[in-house]
Amino acid sequence: MTHPPYLYPGYKSTALRAPGHELVMPKLGPDSVELTSPVFGHQELGRLDWDLTRQHSGEPLGERIIVTGRLLDTAGRPIRGALVEIWQANAAGRYLHAGDQHPAPLDPNFTGAGRCLTDADGRYRFVTIKPGAYPWRNHHNAWRPAHIHFSVFGTAFTQRLVTQMYFPGDPLFPFDPIFQSIPDQRDRENLISRFDMDTTEPEWALGYQWDIVLGDTPMEA
Fold first, then answer.
1. Catalytic status, residue 144
2. Which of 8, 11, 124, 134 is the catalytic position?
3. Which residues pair with 113 in a beta bridge?
4. CA-based, 20 to 30 A from 89: which of 25, 43, 50, 132?
5. pLDDT, tens only, 55-79
6. Is 149 a known active-site residue?
């Protein structure tokens, strides 16, 4: 099984959203749903949506990084023109969200959200700040490894997949039930980016490569 189960006891909040009954197939066809769903186009993107370090009047604090990769289908073919969104904690490990109240500083120059469209080769590219680890109260002394949330859309909100990208060598991997909920070690490794010197820009930002392969990259339930 590539993807994590809907219910994973170690990840407590899955008990709140895992299905309690067998799936009932709706009579409404998917085509009817698509006709009434929001769709995306190039006009939806802002000029700096892809660069999370230039969305405010000043520069955010933290380690600047470049995150890039390709969106591919199971045959390795690029998926062009797909909307890719990211959201993340700041360098101190805090989200700009009312629900995040742990004692780490907010950064007035970092919102922590970005988006872009994949190009003709299926490539996305973001400039951002490396996120910090943060506590999340799932269990005693629970800390999430540094990660960036990714959302991949088709042409409508009903065509959405969500996953997370991690950074190599994080010591919190063995202690994180979200990461460990993926049954196979090889599948877990598909969520870990790789440092890339060719992507790294001298005296400016470290680079990381991470491909998203539909059907192979684990997605959240």
1. yes
2. 134
3. 87
4. 43
5. 999 999 999 999 999 999 999 999 9
6. yes
The number of C-alpha atoms within 13 Å of 146 and in the hemisphere containing its C-beta is: 15
**Helix, strand, coil percent values for the chain (each to nearest 5):** 10, 25, 60
Coil, helix or strand at residue 145: coil
Q: Is 11 a catalytic residue?
A: no
Residue with tokens 């009047």: 57
pLDDT digits (tens, 9 = 90+) for 147-199: 999 999 876 666 889 999 999 999 999 999 999 999 999 999 999 999 999 99
Amino acid identity at 176: D
Candidates 11, 95, 124, 166; catalytic one: 95
Question: How far does CA 114 lie from the centroid of its chain?
Answer: 10
pTM of the model: 0.87
Q: pLDDT class for 13, splitting at 50, 70, 90?
A: confident
95 in active site: yes
Per annotation, catalytic residue among 70, 94, 115, 149:
149
**Residue 37 pLDDT grade (very low, low, confident, very high; cuts 50, 70, 90):** very low
Question: Is 134 tagged catalytic?
Answer: yes
